[in-house]
Design brief:
alpha/beta, Aspartate Aminotransferase, domain 2, 364 residues, 7-stranded mixed beta sheet, 3-stranded antiparallel beta sheet, globular, 14 strands, Aspartate Aminotransferase, domain 1, 17% strand
Length: 364
Amino acid sequence: MKQYILLNPGPACTTQTVRQALVTPDLCHREPEFFEVMRRVREEIAALAGGGTDWATVIFSGSGTAAVEAAVTSVVPPDRTLLVIDNGVYGDRIAQMAGAARIPHRVLKYAWTEPPRAADVDQALADDPSISHLAVIHHETTTGLLNPVQDLAAVCRRHGREIIVDAMSSFAGEPLDVRADGIDYMVSSSNKCLQGMPGLSFVVARRACLETLARIPARSVYLNLYNQWKAEEADNTPFTPAIQIFFALQQAIEETCAEGLEHRFRRYRECARTLRAGAEALGLEMIVAPEWRSHTLTSFRLPAGVTYDGLHAAMKERGYIIYAGQGNLKSWAFRIANLGTLMPGDMEGVVTALGESFTELKQE
């Protein structure tokens, strides 16, 4: 199979050593050799999130959506309400999860290129004492917009409410610290900025918050955050986990620590800068205002006369996989992510390939 440079926001390009870590001897998930790896991965993820010993990592075998749904459906008491920030596909997905689980919820809806306002959250929490939790996406991958979760968490603290942050495509790629930022539940996965393989997702949560979940009636068997946490704390697992993905994630975490988070942040920022400068020179328009752009994904308006399918095919022919817009953006926008193992030099190649593709497509 041809090796492509992945410009989709996960799964991302990985290292050869991460891929090799998948090749492990057959191992029963009830043996101490596996639990040693699971324990180490849980501790290291919490440390990378800035959590320390007062936070715990709970890992699920499943895509990132699995851990988000576990958090959403496990933490809201039956007589309370969830407040959801919706300024993209993934905020809307959280509202869908709440609806499917019959959790009372309210939605603060914004345009897909507009960040939420802390004042709106402040007013909503003041008006409705039944709200126990706020759920918000950190990096709304729909457009590449970075939501101001620190400001929203501060509002929640003032009102004595808890916050769930979906940091799926930002954890280990954008600065985020659960302790300093006052985050109660942070959700992410193995295959985005951690640069591991897809198949594991996790919640980093305050232990004090997790303890309170014992009295909330279960809304799911597989995605029960409290039961999963108690099992993992006892070096156990209620279901068969994705064993080999744990070994790849352990290797990816080791490589993350060796690179250092600050260096990774700088590398991603430089990749984004290189891409955006080159794209602007080609005449491309970005759809998110500069002050709200993440450093891991950029949404561009398609040039006149260029379709996404045509651009995708032309870029794939040159070895690059770009990503379509979502929802009503699909017909006029496309996305390029620069997470994973990509370097600024790779982004220079992306810009060159874009220019060649536009020339080719406009001649057809």
